[in-house]
Design a protein that fits this description.
Layout (H helix, E strand, L loop, with lengths): L11 E5 L4 H11 L3 E6 L19 H6 L3 E5 L5 H12 L3 E4 L5 H5 L3 H7 L4 E6 L14 H7 L7 E2 L2 E2 L6 H24 L3 E6 H8 L1 H10 L16 E5 L5 E5 L3 H11 L14 H6 L1 H13 L3 H10 L3 E4 L3 H5 L2 H5 L3 E4 L6 E4 L23 H7 L4 H9 L5
Parallel strand pairs: 1-2, 1-4, 2-3, 4-5, 5-8
Antiparallel strand pairs: 6-7, 9-10, 10-11, 12-13
Length: 398
């Protein structure tokens, strides 16, 4: 079998992007072989560069979302800076932007304008709430959209709704933008035409809310917030173990409950006790069910508990913290970790979860310094060294 190249080799992406949604989308494209040119502000660049200094002195969000890109720093309010972007776009296959509502249109960088000028271009507009409607001008940050999309209402404990611990709205929009680009590239392959792609954070996250949304719309009641427990299955929760760990288990049917009672809890009579024999009974008696399970697992170490649960055929997991995820034996066994170059030196990073056997491994390029590629990109669009020096001198490029 021939060795296959990365699927997006030869595709050029220009992105006027910031924060998470667009950068995470374009990083997926870079990992699959696309050349991604990241256009940043001259005064600090993508503001995600300043979120924190946790990743070897660099911002963890930025390191996560921006490997494999070329950074050019331009002042787009200056006509000369904007002209450079237009020259870059003229040779690009894909353009992505997630500026505040109306900003791209004022610059002539909205999808409709660019696609009219470049019929083969795929131009992606990522917004908080979409380009029309009463919320179009509303500021949209991840936590705010999590609230508007109802995610916070179903996450947490009965007494306290909480936001997700990851930027779920940003990630949802990013992944729909990524898949939208791939779909548009397939269509361009058969029609020769690109076209606009529109993604809003609210609509992306609302789609991810499908199960609780349909439950509420058609069943009348939204699912209850139950922490790590399941609203309609018991036992399904995390239970403390004797060594300070926590083990999560899920009993999906009554046969599994009988195995749990016999082989793990050593209480076979519970398998047929009418208070616990069916899931409906266990849910009705959730507190007693959880107490029985907690008593059994609380006498075991986490490793011992997991071994017994696995042997009994009960779905289970260790409740890990982030350091334990970084040392996860499955990720190590599958050799998922690589080193990515950054301005602060090499840092560990996960291979992207799309694996394409029989071809090149994902291209996990370096995380760029602000404006690291400004000179080479300006020369690539035909500028002389004197013209580049003038742009730098005038603060148009950095």
């Amino acid at each position: 079998m021939d060795h296959l190249p990365l699927p997006l080799e030869g595709i050029t992406v220009v992105a006027v992007e910031q924060a998470v949604s667009a950068p995470f989308a374009t990083r997926q494209l870079a990992d699959l072989g696309a050349r991604v040119v990241k256009v940043e502000r001259i005064d600090g660049g993508d503001f995600a560069r300043g979120y924190d200094t946790a990743a070897g002195g660099l911002a963890s969000h930025f390191v996560w979302c921006n490997r494999g890109k070329e950074s050019i720093a331009l002042d787009l309010k200056d006509p000369r800076g904007l002209a450079v972007v237009r020259r870059l776009v003229a040779d690009a296959d894909v353009f992505v932007q997630n500026l505040a509502h109306g900003a791209a249109a004022r610059l002539g960088l909205d999808a409709a304008t660019l696609c009219a000028a470049h019929p083969r271009l795929i131009a992606v507009d990522i917004s908080g709430y979409g380009g029309s409607g009463p919320y179009a001008d509303k500021r949209a940050y991840d936590m705010l959209v999590q609230c508007e999309a109802g995610l916070v209402s179903v996450t947490g404990t009965p007494g306290q709704p909480v936001k997700a611990g990851i930027p779920a709205a940003d990630i949802a929009a990013a992944m729909y933008a990524f898949s939208g680009v791939l779909a548009a590239l397939v269509r361009r392959g058969s029609t020769g035409r690109g076209g606009p792609v529109e993604v809003s954070m609210l609509e992306a996250l609302a789609e991810w809310m499908g199960h609780p949304l349909h439950h509420a719309m058609h069943g009348g009641e939204p699912p209850a917030r139950t922490g790590l427990a399941h609203a309609v299955i018991a036992p399904y929760d995390a239970y403390p173990t004797a060594d300070g760990g926590r083990v999560l288990l899920s009993v999906q049917n009554d046969r599994e409950w009988r195995r749990l009672a016999e082989q793990v809890m050593e209480r076979p009579e519970l398998g047929t006790d009418p208070d616990f024999a069916t899931n409906a009974a266990r849910v009705a008696n959730r507190a007693r069910t959880d107490e029985l399970v907690a008593d059994a697992l609380g006498a075991l170490g986490a490793d011992e508990a997991l071994a017994l649960l696995e042997k009994a055929g009960i779905a289970c997991a260790r409740l890990r913290d982030l350091h334990e995820l970084a040392d996860h034996p499955q990720l190590a066994a599958r050799e998922r970790w690589r080193r990515v170059g950054t301005p602060a030196g090499p840092l560990k990073a996960l291979l992207p979860p799309i694996t394409l056997p029989g071809g090149d491994e994902a291209r996990m390029g370096d995380v760029p310094a602000l404006g690291q590629h400004t000179g080479s990109l300006l020369r690539a669009v035909g500028m002389t060294d004197d013209e580049i020096a003038a742009l730098r001198r005038d603060g148009v490029a950095a």
